[in-house]
Design a protein that fits this description.
34% helix, alpha/beta, 10 strands, single chain
C-alpha cells in the first residue's frame, strides 16, 4: 500500500562521512499516520538514515549527503532551511531514556517555553503526558525529578516531551532496547495510539517488535566494498510488514527475517 502523499521522501540519497560513503542509493516514501520500521544488521545505515530526516547528522562535522530528502515536498537540505525548525516538526526519541535534570513537569514544558508557547502550559503538559500514557502515573508528583521514574516511565516521559513540541513525525531509534519486557509492551501500545496523530519511524533490531507494531518495514543490508570503512549500507527491500516477513521478494530479506544471518 503506497501513500500518494508521503510525509517524508528520500530520493537517490547517498550518505557520506568525509570521503567514506556509508549508505548508498536510497529511495523511500514514508506514509502518513503509519508506523514504518527500519530493520537490518548492525552497520547497514538504519540509524544514519533516520537521523537524516531531522538533520541530526548535521552535528557531525564530516557528514554530508547527496540526493534529496523532502518533507511535504520541501527539500530539508535546501540552504534556506533552518534545522531547528525541522526538528520542531520531526521529533526524536533516543535509544536510552534521556530526561533533562528537571522536574517531570519542566521536562514536558521545556520545548514549549523555549519556543514561547502562547497556550495554557498546564493543559499542554497534561495532554502530552496523557498521549504518552503516563499522566495517571505521575499526575501527583509533577514536581519530582524526571530521574525519579523507572526506565520505562522515563522513556514515556521523553516521548511526552517530544509530542509536547507538536511535531508531525516522531523518529524512534531503538526506543525499547534498554527497557524491560513490561515497559516495552507499554511503549509498543503507545506507538499504536500515537499513530492516530503522528507518523512514526522506528529503528529496531527486534524483528518481533517490527511485526507487532509496524505497518510497513524497510530492510536494510550492508555489502562489502573497497571503500574506506569496508562496507556500505543500502535499502534491500521495502513493503508492507506482512510481505517483508511473510513473502519477501528478495532472498536476502528472507534469509534475514528467518534468522540465517544478522
Amino acid at each position: 500500500m503506497q501513500d500518494n502523499n508521503p510525509v517524508l521522501k528520500a530520493e537517490n540519497v547517498n550518505i557520506y562521512y568525509g570521503t567514506y560513503r556509508a549508505v548508498r542509493d536510497v529511495y523511500i516514501d514514508i506514509p502518513t499516520n503509519q508506523i514504518t520500521a527500519f530493520i537490518g544488521p548492525s552497520g547497514c545505515g538504519k540509524s544514519t538514515l533516520l537521523r537524516c530526516f531531522n538533520r541530526l547528522n548535521d552535528l557531525i562535522e564530516i557528514f554530508h549527503l547527496d540526493g534529496v530528502i523532502s518533507y511535504r515536498g520541501v527539500n530539508l537540505y535546501d540552504k534556506d532551511i533552518d534545522p531547528i525548525e525541522v526538528r520542531k516538526r520531526i521529533g526524536m526519541v533516543f535509544q536510552r531514556p534521556n530526561p533533562f535534570p528537571k522536574s517531570i513537569y519542566d521536562n514536558v514544558a521545556y520545548g514549549a517555553r523555549v519556543n514561547k508557547y502562547q497556550g495554557n502550559l498546564d493543559e499542554l503538559v497534561e495532554r502530552s503526558l496523557r498521549r504518552a500514557a503516563l499522566w495517571d502515573e505521575v499526575k501527583d508528583k509533577l514536581k519530582e525529578s524526571g530521574f525519579s521514574l523507572s526506565g520505562g516511565q522515563q522513556q514515556r516521559l521523553c516521548i511526552a516531551r517530544t509530542v509536547a513540541a507538536e511535531p508531525e513525525v516522531v523518529l524512534m531509534d531503538e526506543p525499547c532496547s534498554a527497557l524491560d519486557p513490561i515497559s516495552t509492551v507499554k511503549v509498543e501500545e503507545l506507538m499504536q495510539e500515537l499513530k492516530q496523530n503522528y507518523t512514526i519511524i522506528i529503528v529496531t533490531h527486534n524483528m518481533q517488535q517490527a511485526t507487532r507494531v509496524a505497518d510497513r518495514t524497510a530492510f536494510f543490508n550492508a555489502e562489502v566494498t573497497q571503500e574506506k570503512g569496508g562496507k556500505i549500507g543500502y535499502l534491500a527491500e521495502y513493503d508492507d510488514t506482512k510481505v517483508i516477513f511473510g513473502n519477501p521478494r528478495e532472498k536476502i530479506t528472507q534469509d534475514y527475517v528467518s534468522g540465517r544471518f544478522g
